[in-house]
Amino acid sequence: MSQEKKLPSVGFIGLGAMGVPMAKRVAEAGYPLTVLDADAGRTEKVAADISASAASSAAELGKNCQIVVTMLPTSDIVSEVLFGENGLADSLAPGSIVIDMTSGSPTKTQAIASALARSSIALCDAPVSGGVPRAKTGELAIMLGGDADTIETIRPLVSSMGTSLTVVGGVGSAHAMKALNNLVSAGGFLIGMEALLIGSRFGLSPETMVEVLNASTGMNNSTQKKFKQFVLSRKFDAGFGLDLMVKDLGIALEVASQTDTTTPFSSLCFEIWSAARKTLGPGQDHTAVARFQELIAGSEVNND
Questions:
Q1: pLDDT by residue (tens digit) across 276-302?
Q2: What residue numbers bound the domain in which 181 lies?
């Protein structure tokens, strides 16, 4: 009888709203898992909850792991975790793999990958789409950028977190694609919300409008999964921050600038979302941009 192939040891850094359910899926798939968060108390709690080991630093985590997943707010934080004091890069063995699932900057990701390559450490960028609900069920859409052999090595691990895996190109390409995906999503939200405001003031029921849009050509992700659930309900708690959306739109425009692409609508989209962040303040869910649109329209969507 042949022995089952031993699963590689995995480290997971970044235990936020998305990181926790993703790490849980990895643990449930049977991978020996070590976790780390900037909040030591959170590290200990999550480790206990999902039957993982807790690390006290990135360097400690790296000594025990063959593959490390980073799920952090920005590429600058990824760089600090890798190359800062008690950093991950110094403790990883040659042949290790870093999977950066952050929604990061393509150019910064490429620079990080080049620095790691000098120590024979590979990096793949693998940002995700689907939000907290799909992170919990392991049904995320995951974009993959990197060397083909490295991607095949990590495919089983990444498959524990997502059901739609798409290889989009070399290192940095997945982060570019994620930013462009969020650009399209952000634009769809704004135009859909404006339609609801117009219709509401005309006398149409917003609930009915959403139903019609979802049965017609105006359907998009926001009409399907955000308007009734988080805007009309007034919950504004989809689980993805307004600050992070603005960051991703900035990355998309960074790519546009680097490719010398004229983007009048994308630039306007970025300005509206940025104005919403400034007006509403920090800590807002991205669906709260609807409140900013209501503010400048002078009315709320309602069913009266």
A1: 999 999 999 999 999 999 999 999 997
A2: 176-297
The phi and psi torsions of 97 (rounded to 5 degrees) equal -130, 135
Question: What is the rounded CA–CA span in Å between residue 231 and residue 156?
Answer: 37
- Of the chain, the percentage scoring pLDDT greater than 70 comes to 98
DSSP 240-272: SBHHHHHHHHHHHHHHHHHTT---HHHHHHHHH
pLDDT score for 299: 96
The whole-number pLDDT of residue 5 equals 75
The answer to whether position 243 is within a domain reads: yes
* Mean pLDDT confidence for 98-126: 97
Task: Give the catalytic positions in this structure.
Answer: 178
The residue assigned the tokens 């031993």 is: 6
Q: Which strand (E) or helix (H) includes residue 211?
A: helix 206-214
Q: How far apart are CA 172 and CA 112, in angstroms?
A: 10
**Same-domain pairing of 28 and 98:** yes
- Please tell me the distance from the alpha carbon of residue 182 to that of residue 73, in angstroms, as a whole number: 15
For the chain, report the end-to-end CA distance as a whole number of angstroms.
69
The torsion angles phi and psi of 39, rounded to 5 degrees, stand at -90, 110
Q: What is the pLDDT of residues 217-257, one digit of tens each?
A: 999 999 999 999 999 999 999 989 999 999 999 999 999 99
The verdict on residue 303 lying in a domain is no
The answer to whether residues 138 and 200 belong to one domain is no
- Give which of 156, 122, 142, 124 is closest to 31, Cα–Cα: 156
